[in-house]
Each structure stands twice: as structure tokens, then as C-alpha cells.
Design a protein that fits this description.
alpha/beta; Rossmann fold; Threonine synthase; binds the ligand N[C@@H](CCOP(=O)(O)O)C(=O)O; 6-stranded mixed beta sheet; 5-stranded parallel beta sheet; 15% strand; binds pyridoxal-5'-phosphate; amino-acid biosynthesis; pyridoxal phosphate; 460 residues
């Protein structure tokens, strides 16, 4: 399998090189040259596979330059740290299916891909004898999942930029209490979009990228999206065992990585009816789908802080397919967007979008009310991001079956959950004592030059 760029200006590369490249060197995002189609017989033969085996079947289609035994070992060990034998179990509460993606070590869906990516980096660096400096941006969850994926690993240094004071207190502590020498947290005085911009600028400076061997842990890295495709299949098998009606996945969305993984699963042939894109009040993607209006606004702070994002990086991957795999159109729309802050689409394109996606924006009160009502009726605690997806499903999926992705554990967002239910969620064992642990973190202005200097000083 070869990988190409959404901007069309790189020579195709293999999977291993795509993982190491992170952001494509022409500023675009990497995609497989073709998405493999899964026929009905293969799909049915995968139905009973345990999670790790299913992950191997799917990932090996895209990662054919890694020997099968090595890939299997990497995948198997990536899920040893999960506290549920099914890895991503599906539960049913009040008629709503919930795919629990938060059973990894940092209690968010990011662990599913980042435990794998950490192992993959370690394997590839051992093979090449190189070192890597990971630079990533987080609105709260990618950061700790990436840090846990690579802490203490040889030949890897990690720099994570998060918006200062804008994550939940537990999210910040999950990052800054990791004191391993290879871990560097930077709290940026700005928004997640500022952090992501700086990271992209550093990757686009090809001299800096090469000199410091930068590695990407954000969903700009294709391996992130790939590992997330697996749980769509896994959940679909569990739910389609029980129902005949069309299945819609409701996906709380920020950077468009998770829902893009669903789009890939659908394109591979998984019978998904619609992808329901659920946003909080940062609703640029909902405006796009429902009104054809993709115009940038300013970031609003919400009780679902991991989705406080305006510019979703993986949207570019989707646009590549919307534009019939035409990189010139992708380049053109991003050039205009940089100048005007908006994108324009034809009526035909918007019809295509609405065949694949539906969308709902969920406000603060609705999010809190959903947590409260769900808890009262079922005893089940939703985290605020999951609540956004559940509310969108309850409002939009009137015909058919909804599977809501539960992207984080409620204990990460204690304040919001307490506000909704009147009681703080119980702490799982992995968070015990976290509020008392010492922390290390550099607070910096949203200034690329200063951050670049900091990374250059600490890089190894
Ligand atoms: C808990 C949680 N839910 C949902 C999202 C949105 O996922 P994505 O950015 O892949 O759209 C994020 C962060 O990205 C998250 O941390
Ligand atoms: N919500 C994310 C934002 C970064 O998204 P990514 O999927 O591109 O890593 C976070 O929690 O950091």
C-alpha cells in the first residue's frame, strides 16, 4: 500500500515512511492510494473475531511493509494496558448503544490508537537506529494518551502543547504529573487552534523537521486514523447481531479524526447508514453540513473542552474525497481559506456531503441536561463529550439504530458531571492520588519562535 498527499506534491511512500513523515512534506495530509474494499464474505468471516485479531486483519491491509508477525505482536501488546477484555465494549442504555472507547490507561478513546502508535514508533526507530522528537498539540486527551504511549521509551522525546487553563484540571494533571525525562509539557497562552497551528508550522519547516527528526502523534498521522477504524467494525458487529435497522454512528467531533475513521470504515464497505457529526458550541462543522457555511469563528470554552476547536485538521482528508481525489482543488480551497477564513462548496458537493453525514450542534445546557437525564433514568454516567453525541443521536436518529461513541470517562470531567448530577463521579484506580502528585510544565506565549527554541534546547 502506498500513501499520497491530499495536496498531490509528494512521491508515493510506504506505510512505514508515512508514519514517520506525519504531516506530508508538501503541507498536506497522507492518505492511502486506494481504500481497500471488504466484500460481504470477508465481513461476515470477521464478525466473531476478538478485538486484537480484528485489528490485525484491518491494519495489515494498510501496513503491508511490516512483517505479519511483528505487526501482530505490536497490536497485541498495545491493548494489554486496557482494563476491559473486549477493549472497546458496547453497552445498551435506554435503547441507545454506547461504544465505550475509554478503557485505556488515560481514559479516552485516544489510547486506542496511541498505545499502538507508541509501540510502532519504538519498533521503527529500533529498526532504523534513529531518534525522534515528537511534537503534538492537545485540547486535553491526545496529550496524555501520547505521553503514556511513549513515556520512558528509548530514542523518543515528546513535546506536548496544550492551551493553558483550558483543559479540565484532571486532563492537565494526567499530562503534567508524568515526570519522565523524555516528557515535556508546554502550556500555551492561547487556544488549541494556536497550539495546532504552531505544531503544523514546525512540521512545515522542513529544515527544522529534519534536523530534529520530528514525529507526529496527532491525527495528522495516518496510523492514528487507521487504528481508530477498527472500533467502528467491532461495534457494528456487536450491534448488527441484535438489530436489522440501518446503523448510524454518532461521533462527538473536534478535529474530525474520529469521524474520518468512520468515513474510511464506510468506504471500505462497512454498512453504516449515516455518520452523525455532533459538535458543541464550536459548531463550524455543523454549519458546514447543515447550511453549507464553512466560515471560521472564535473558539468558545465549553464543558466538553476537548472539542473546543475551530479548524479541524482531518477535514482536509475528507475534502480530498469530496473533490473526487483532485489535489489541485484541495490546494486551491486551502489557499482561499488562508486569505478569507471561509470555504465555498457547490450544491452538488453539499448533496454528496449530506448523503454521508448528518449533524447537530449541542449547547451547554443540553449537554448538562443529557448527562443528568441519562444518569437519573439509567444510573449510567456520560462524560460531557459523549453526552454531546448522545443528545445529537436522540434528536436526529428517529428511524434506525444509533451507536454513540463514548470518547472519554466521566471522571476526567468531574466539575461538569457534578454540575449536571449534583455528585462528583467516582475516581477509577488509575487516577487515585493524581491531585497530590508533583507536576512539571513550561508556561509559554503562543509564539512559534520561542517554542521552537525550547524544543531545540531540550531535543536529543
Ligand atoms: C473526549 C473527546 N471526545 C471527542 C473528541 C473529538 O475527536 P476528534 O478530534 O477526532 O474529532 C476529542 C478530541 O479530539 C476528545 O478528546
Ligand atoms: N481533542 C483532541 C485534539 C487533538 O486531536 P487529534 O485527534 O488530532 O490528536 C485532544 O484531546 O487533544
Amino acid at each position: 500500500m502506498k500513501y499520497i498527499s491530499t495536496r498531490g506534491n509528494i512521491q508515493p511512500v510506504g506505510f512505514k515512511e508515512a508514519v514517520m513523515m506525519g504531516l506530508a512534506t508538501d503541507g498536506g495530509l497522507l492518505l492511502p492510494e486506494r481504500i481497500p474494499a471488504i466484500d460481504a464474505a470477508t465481513l461476515s468471516s470477521w464478525r466473531q473475531l476478538p478485538y486484537r485479531e480484528l485489528a490485525f486483519r484491518i491494519i495489515s491491509l494498510f501496513a503491508d511493509d511490516i512483517p505479519a508477525n511483528d505487526l501482530k505482536r505490536l497490536i497485541d501488546s498495545s491493548y494489554d494496558s486496557f482494563d476491559h477484555k473486549e477493549i472497546t465494549p458496547v453497552v445498551k442504555e435506554n435503547g441507545v448503544y454506547i461504544a465505550e472507547l475509554f478503557h485505556g490507561p488515560t481514559l479516552a478513546f485516544k489510547d486506542v490508537a496511541l498505545q499502538f502508535l507508541g509501540n510502532l514508533f519504538e519498533y521503527l526507530l529500533k529498526e532504523s537506529g534513529q531518534k525522534m522528537n515528537i511534537v503534538g498539540a492537545t485540547s486535553g486527551d491526545t496529550g496524555s494518551a501520547a505521553i503514556y504511549g511513549v513515556r520512558g521509551k528509548e530514542n523518543i522525546n515528546i513535546f506536548i502543547l496544550h492551551p493553558h487553563g483550558k483543559t479540565s484540571p484532571i486532563q492537565a494533571r494526567q499530562m503534567t504529573t508524568v515526570l519522565d525525562a523524555n516528557v515535556h509539557n508546554i502550556a500555551v497562552k492561547g487556544t488549541f487552534d494556536d497550539c495546532q497551528n504552531i505544531v503544523k508550522e514546525l512540521f512545515n519547516d522542513l529544515t527544522f523537521k529534519e534536523k530534529y527528526a520530528l514525529g507526529a502523534v496527532n491525527s495528522i498521522n495516518w496510523a492514528r486514523v487507521l487504528a481508530q477504524v477498527v472500533y467502528y467494525f467491532y461495534a457494528w458487529f456487536r450491534v448488527s447481531d441484535e438489530v436489522d435497522s440501518p446503523i448510524t454512528f454518532s461521533v462527538p467531533t473536534g478535529n474530525f479524526g474520529d469521524i474520518f475513521a468512520g468515513f474510511v470504515a464506510k468506504r471500505m464497505g462497512l454498512p453504516i447508514d449515516k455518520l452523525l457529526l455532533a459538535t458543541n458550541e464550536n459548531n463550524i462543522l455543523t454549519r458546514f453540513i447543515n447550511e453549507g457555511d464553512y466560515s471560521i469563528g472564535s473558539v468558545v470554552q465549553t464543558v466538553s473542552p476537548s472539542m473546543d476547536i475551530q479548524v479541524a485538521s482531518n477535514f482536509e482528508r475528507y475534502l480530498y474525497y469530496l473533490f473526487d481525489e483532485n489535489p489541485a482543488r484541495v490546494r486551491d480551497i486551502f489557499t482561499r481559506f488562508a486569505a478569507t477564513g471561509r470555504m465555498d462548496f457547490t450544491d452538488e458537493e453539499m448533496r454528496t456531503v449530506r448523503r454521508e453525514f448528518a449533524s447537530r450542534s449541542v449547547n451547554e445546557q443540553e449537554t448538562l441536561d443529557t448527562i443528568a437525564a441519562f444518569h437519573q433514568e439509567t444510573g449510567y454516567l456520560l462524560d460531557p463529550h459523549t453526552a454531546v453525541g448522545v443528545k445529537a443521536a436522540l434528536a436526529c436518529v428517529t428511524d434506525g439504530t444509533a451507536v454513540c461513541l463514548a470518547t472519554a470517562h466521566p471522571a476526567k470531567f468531574g466539575e461538569a458531571v457534578e454540575k449536571a448530577t449534583g455528585t462528583a463521579p467516582p475516581f477509577p484506580a488509575c487516577l487515585a492520588g493524581i491531585e497530590q502528585l508533583p507536576t512539571r510544565c513550561e508556561i509559554m506565549e503562543a509564539n512559534r519562535t520561542a517554542i521552537e527554541k525550547f524544543i531545540a534546547e531540550k531535543a536529543r
